[in-house]
Amino acid sequence: MIVVVDERSLVTSGYSAWFAREGITTTGFAPDDFGDWVATVQESDIMAVEAFLIGECANRSQFPHKIRERCSAPVIAVNETQSLENTLELFQAGVDDVVRKPMHVREILARINAIRRRYGNGGTGTQIGPIRVFSDGRDPQINGVDFSLPRRERRILEYLIANRGRRLNKAQIFSAIYGIFDSDVEESVVESHISKLRKKLREQLGHDPIDSKRFLGYCINLD
């Protein structure tokens, strides 16, 4: 899930539509709401965020520090005008990258993945055992062969591998795949997606790589 912060609702809804075409869930915030949210949100919700996009808003140079107090997800500022002074100010404030509109969402995803690779947090072409996942919309591969999955199952597999070594509960996976405020879908749908994913992986690998423990959640084990 990607969090977008902008004072214009048309902008946040536009990003939501663009990222959805790439199979990525977004959650949009007005600046005032985001400040309150990032300071008080539950850890399980903020740990489901894969990146933050900070658009046009007052006092946005304050947001990177607030984000860093809670998580290490990439922070990208989006500018609509070219200004060296403004760009330098944003980098000084702690953003990981500054981009200028218009920019295709695939390039934004590529920049997010590059930042995550730089800090050792995965990215495009992450391989664990025989499975390689891509965070740019491509299907994963098993032993070098494309392994086609429906969008939700693919995103769950990517999320599990990106968080390898951590056990993720159903709420975290739900937030990452459907967004924090999606009330139209029940959390129990995660169990259905994971059940289908496990069956397909078992058929390909000969064993179930997803370990689950009641009340604790799921983790991937491919070592």
Protein architecture, described:
The chain has 223 residues and is α/β, with parallel strands linked by helices. The protein folds into 2 domains: 2-119, Response regulator (Rossmann fold, 3-Layer(aba) Sandwich), CATH 3.40.50; 126-220, Arc Repressor Mutant, subunit A (Orthogonal Bundle), CATH 1.10.10. It is built from 9 helices and 11 strands. The protein has helices spanning 9-20, 31-40, 43-46, 63-68, 84-93, 105-118, 151-162, 170-178, 189-205; strands at residues 2-5, 26-29, 51-54, 75-79, 97-100, 126-128, 131-133, 141-142, 145-146, 210-213, 217-220. The strands form 3 sheets. Strands 2-1-3-4-5 form a 5-stranded parallel beta sheet, with helices on both faces. Strands 6-7-8-9 form a 4-stranded antiparallel beta sheet, covered by helices on one side. The chain has a two-stranded antiparallel ribbon with strand order 10-11. α1 links the parallel β1 and β2. The longest helix has 17 residues, at 189-205. It is globular. The model has no long low-confidence stretch (mean pLDDT 85). GO terms for molecular function: phosphorelay response regulator activity; transcription cis-regulatory region binding. This is Two-component system response regulator.
